[in-house]
Structure formats: C-alpha cells, structure tokens
C-alpha cells in the first residue's frame, strides 16, 4: 500500500461566498442562483458562488466589448499596462497563501504543490509584463522607392477565457496576463468546481488598477455560461483549456462567427525508457509523472513505454517507490497526492482499471479507492501487460494510473508513442544522444522532455499536436497570440494609377 495521510477535520469551516465580476462591480447575477463547492478531500461545503446565466454572460461580454471599443486599456502605453501587470504580480505574491489554500481545498491538491503553482503564476505575470513592452510589428523598407510597408500588431479585441479545474490559478495565468499585455479585454469563466482563486484574482486586478470592464469573471456551467462565451458575435477570440470533447464543441461554436480559437486539450503522454538510461532517475520521474496532481494532469506521463529487457525490473522498482507515496490530506504539507475531483470522476477512473484488468492487464500496484470515510481518494496504480490497443493505453484516464507497455526496437517505441490521437508531451530516457534526438524529432508532441519530465518555464512554449490542441501558450510569442496583424501599405511620391498615363 501507499502511505496514508488521513485528512484532519477542518476547524470552523467558514463557507466562502463569492459574487461575479461584471463591468468592475461585484454582482449577484440575473437569477441570483448559486453553486456550492464541496471539498473533495473533506466532503464539506467550502465555497458558494453566484452562478451566471446566459444573460449574465451577455452582460459580461457587453462590458468587455465597451471597454475594448471605447475604454482606456487598449489605448494606454504598453509601459503603463506592464506596470499594472507587475503590480498584480506583487499582489498575487502577497496573497499567495490565501490563493494556494483555496486551490488546495476546492481541487483537493496538496498545499505544497499549490504554493508552487502560485509562485509559478507570479513569474508568468511578470514575464507577460516584460513581453508587453516588446510587442511590435515589422517594417519593410525594401519594397522599392515608392513603397513603405509597416506591419502592425493590434490587440485582437474581446477574448473569452475558459479554464478547467485541475490547475485553476496556474491556467488562467497562462492566458489572461498575455491577453491583457496585448491590450485585449476579457470575459473569464473558471471551472464551476474551482472558481475561488480566479475570483480572488479579480479582486487583485481591480486593486492593481485594471479599469472596469477590462476583466469580467463569471461562474457557471459550460452549457449556461460557457456556450455564449464561445458563440457571441462580440467575442473575437476564445482561449480554452479543457477536455478534447469540449474543445471540439468550442471550435464548432466559434466557427459560426469565425473566431480565432486557441485550444489546450487532453493528453496521453508516453515516457520511453531505454536500458542504458539512469533508471533511478527514470523510476522517480515515472512515479512523479503518473501521480503528480493525482494524475489529473494533461501532461501526466501515463504511458510508460519500457524496453523489454528492463520491464520486469523497472515495474518492480516503480511499484516499490509507489509504496512510499503519501496520499491523503491536501492541507498536510507532507502529502504528495490529494483527492480526486468528484465522486463521479473516481468512478470513471475505477472503471478504466477494472476494464483493463478484465481485458488482460495486470494490476501490479494499487487499483482501488482509499476510504477515509469522507472525500474521495485513489491509490497510486500500476497496470502492467498493457497492449497498445487497450483503452488504458489510448484514452486519458485522468487519475493516478500508470500503464506499462513494452518495445524492442526504437522504431517500435516511436510507432507506439505516435499511435494515439493525442500529442501533448513525451519523455525519453537514454544516455545516448542519438537515441534522445531521434525520439525528440520523431515523436509528434508539443514538448519532449529528455532525461527529465514535466519541467517548464515561462519562456518555453507549451501546447499540443493533433487532438491535444491548437496554438501555443507561454514563450516569447504568447502576447502575439492575442493580436491581429494589420498591414499599412504606404505610397511615397506621385502614384502611377490604373487610368493614369505611365
Ligand atoms: P472540461 O472540458 O469538462 O471543462 C473545461 C471548461 O469548459 C470548464 O470551465 C467548463 O465549465 C467549460 N465547459 C464545459 N462545457 C462547455 C461548453 N459546451 N462550452 C463552453 N465551455 C464549456 O474539462 P475539465 O474536466 O474541467 O478539465 C480536464 C480536462 O482539461 C482534461 O482533458 C485535461 O487534459 C484538460 N487540460 C488540458 C491542459 C492543457 O494545457 N493541454 C491543461 C489542463 C487541463
């Protein structure tokens, strides 16, 4: 088994109440409906939100439209916008404990991890501030005596930002600061399961000096609040992170008015390991890649593609290390794996495990839920003897479940790695430079880690191939993603026209 950390009773649970932010005001919503969030680790209500209807979404879009078309934000200097973003970064840092607590209690994530995510988010806000001041177009002085060409980068307009529950504060921070840096205005909808930290961000942004209407935050379901955000004609761009299924719907809705769409979707990421690798480092990364965030991670390294010569030894070593993983109370600083987001999701994960066991895979470790009497938790699980065609080798389980597959030749490993619909990230483990580069060039994924896994930096672009998404976040082009390109084609001197004599 793993090491269990039973959640301590929450002393004096105060249910935190949140309103939504529209046009600079905290409002109740047209129907004043509410959504309650029950902590997945403790089974008690911890947050209550005002839930948005379609009309609220329309009001938020109208506010963002007005702020873009007539407001100060898109018209101020980039230096002024950067100043506001830097102030926001300092304020996020000052309230990091409060934000980290909200993400931990609403999402069931370990508190040490959420603190790391907030620190990472602060860095992104600062990076976006730096990029804001360097946003520029191009000029062409090479088009002949009579022509000067200038290419402008203009803010794209109103952006809908829709985020999932698995990294609530980090993911909104991968989008919003860059949209703001470009001069856009936004309507933001966090997941209805984990909206607290995004609403705190709204408070911070208002205090940091973001003008009314520039950032609007609504809470609600996808069907009610999300659909208008992806289909309303006044929205110019949709930046979505979530499941591949909803990503498809988002694109279809946005297609009606041909909005620009950026999609960060699911993954089924392989880690390929060769016999010459540093196996101690690999085993650690396999456990981290599989169980980090309880496996509820788009980047989870959920497919281990292991060379046949070492598969027995490596599986045994991963199982032994899995015994040491500490699962349970997200508020205990020693916990490494927290709770599963909802009871329904836990059932789905268990369905995958029992389906695989019934289909010929072996449960080499874990395989069942952990019962503390409240909340929902899943034991770190290893499935061996997995074949590439099984559902657990192809579909995103989104739980702490590792599937072990085998290969003989490098070509076979590449073929297995590329055989799924996803292409978000991959890892390769070998001391041989040629092996790493061959895998790095041939595996079709947006990020390839070599002798490491799930590292990242604000400077490095992130996103997926194929059904893992469209576009890239972070990196030096992140602000450009929220712009339109405009060509100024200028004529110098007397123009020789169509009808004019030459
Ligand atoms: P989800 O697709 O169910 O929901 C994501 C967001 O979309 C939520 O805010 C939800 O309310 C909203 N939504 C739902 N239906 C909608 C609709 N019809 N129109 C508009 N919005 C709608 O995803 P989830 O369960 O919250 O998150 C898990 C998924 O997110 C996984 O598939 C994971 O791989 C993916 N993810 C991807 C990345 C990445 O960067 N590639 C990062 C994190 C999570």
Written description of the protein model:
The termini are far apart. A hairpin with a 2-residue loop joins strand 3 and strand 4. The protein has two domains: 8-265 and 468-486, Aldehyde Dehydrogenase, Chain A, domain 1; 270-450, Aldehyde Dehydrogenase, Chain A, domain 2, CATH 3.40.309. The protein contains 15 helices and 27 strands. A seven-stranded mixed β-sheet has the order 17-20-21-15-14-23-24, with helices on both faces. Strands 11-10-9-12-13-26 form a six-stranded mixed β-sheet, with helices on both faces. A three-stranded mixed β-sheet has the order 2-6-5, with no helix packed on it. It has 502 residues and is an alpha/beta fold. The model has no long low-confidence stretch (mean pLDDT 97). It binds nicotinamide-adenine-dinucleotide. The site of nicotinamide-adenine-dinucleotide has 32 residues, from helix 8 and helix 9.
For this entry, give a set of tags.
502 residues; alpha/beta; Aldehyde Dehydrogenase, Chain A, domain 1; Aldehyde Dehydrogenase, Chain A, domain 2; 2 domains; six-stranded mixed β-sheet; 27 strands; binds nicotinamide-adenine-dinucleotide
Brief sketch in words of this structure:
With 502 residues, the protein is α/β, with parallel strands linked by helices. The strands form eight sheets. It has a seven-stranded mixed β-sheet, with helices on both faces. The chain has a six-stranded mixed β-sheet with strand order 11-10-9-12-13-26, sandwiched between helices.
How much of the sequence lies in strands comes to: 15-25%
Secondary structure class reads alpha/beta
CATH topology of the largest domain: Aldehyde Dehydrogenase, Chain A, domain 1
What is the CATH level 1 assignment of the largest domain? Alpha Beta
Strand order in the largest sheet: 17-20-21-15-14-23-24
Q: In total, how many domains does the architecture comprise?
A: 2
Instruction: Give the CATH architecture of the largest domain.
Output: 3-Layer(aba) Sandwich
How would you name the CATH homologous superfamily of the largest domain? Aldehyde Dehydrogenase, Chain A, domain 1
The average pLDDT score comes to: 97
Are any ligands bound, and if so which?
nicotinamide-adenine-dinucleotide
Q: Helix tally?
A: 15
Head-to-tail CA distance between termini = 87 Å
Based on DSSP secondary structure assignment, what is the total number of beta strands?
Answer: 27
Would you identify the regions where 5 or more consecutive residues have pLDDT less than 50?
A: none
In which range does the helix fraction lie? Answer: 25-40%
């Amino acid at each position: 088994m793993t090491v269990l950390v039973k959640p301590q009773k929450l002393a004096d649970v105060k249910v935190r109440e949140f309103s939504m932010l529209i046009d600079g005001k905290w409002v109740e919503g047209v129907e004043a409906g509410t959504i309650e969030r029950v902590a997945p680790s403790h089974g008690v209500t911890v947050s209550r939100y005002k839930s948005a209807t379609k009309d609220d979404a329309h009001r938020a879009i109208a506010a963002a439209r007005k702020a873009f078309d007539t407001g100060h934000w898109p018209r101020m200097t980039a230096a002024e916008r950067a100043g506001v973003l830097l102030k926001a970064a300092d304020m996020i840092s000052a309230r990091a404990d409060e934000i980290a607590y909200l993400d931990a209690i609403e999402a069931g994530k370990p508190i040490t991890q959420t603190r790391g995510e907030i620190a990472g988010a602060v860095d992104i806000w600062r990076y976006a501030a730096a990029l804001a001041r360097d946003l520029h177009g191009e000029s062409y002085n090479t088009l002949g005596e009579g022509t000067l060409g200038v290419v402008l980068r203009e803010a794209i307009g109103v952006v809908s930002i829709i985020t999932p529950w698995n990294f609530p504060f980090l993911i909104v921070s991968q989008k919003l600061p860059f949209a703001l840096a470009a001069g856009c205005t936004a309507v933001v909808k966090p997941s209805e399961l984990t909206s607290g930290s995004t609403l705190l961000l709204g408070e911070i942004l208002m205090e940091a000096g973001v003008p009314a209407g520039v950032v609007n935050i609504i809470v609600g379901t996808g069907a009610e609040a999300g659909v208008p955000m992806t289909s309303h004609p006044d929205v110019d761009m949709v930046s979505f992170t979530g499941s591949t299924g909803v990503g498809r719907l988002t694109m279809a809705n946005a297609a009606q008015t041909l909005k620009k769409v950026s999609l960060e979707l699911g993954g089924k990421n392989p880690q390929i390991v060769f016999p010459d690798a540093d196996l101690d480092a690999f085993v650690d990364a396999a456990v981290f890649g599989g169980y980090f965030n309880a496996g509820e991670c788009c980047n989870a390294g959920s497919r281990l593609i292991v060379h046949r010569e070492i598969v027995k030894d490596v599986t045994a070593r991963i199982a032994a290390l899995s015994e040491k993983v500490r699962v349970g109370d997200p508020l205990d600083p020693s916990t490494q794996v927290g709770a599963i987001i909802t009871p329904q999701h836990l059932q789905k994960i268990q369905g995958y495990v029992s389906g695989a066991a019934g289909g010929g895979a072996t449960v080499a470790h874990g395989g069942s839920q952990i019962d503390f009497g409240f909340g929902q938790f899943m034991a770190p699980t290893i499935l061996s003897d997995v074949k590439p065609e099984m559902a657990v080798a192809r579909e995103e389980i989104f739980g702490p479940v590792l599937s072990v597959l085998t290969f003989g030749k490098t070509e076979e490993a590449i073929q297995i790695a590329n055989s799924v619909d996803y292409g978000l990230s991959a890892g390769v483990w070998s001391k041989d430079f040629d092996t790493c580069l061959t895998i790095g060039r041939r595996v079709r994924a947006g990020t390839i880690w070599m002798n490491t896994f799930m590292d990242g930096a604000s400077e490095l672009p992130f996103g997926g191939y194929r059904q893992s998404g469209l576009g890239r976040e972070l990196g030096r082009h992140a602000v450009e993603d929220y712009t339109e390109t405009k060509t100024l084609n200028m004529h110098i001197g007397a123009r020789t026209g169509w009808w004019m004599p030459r």
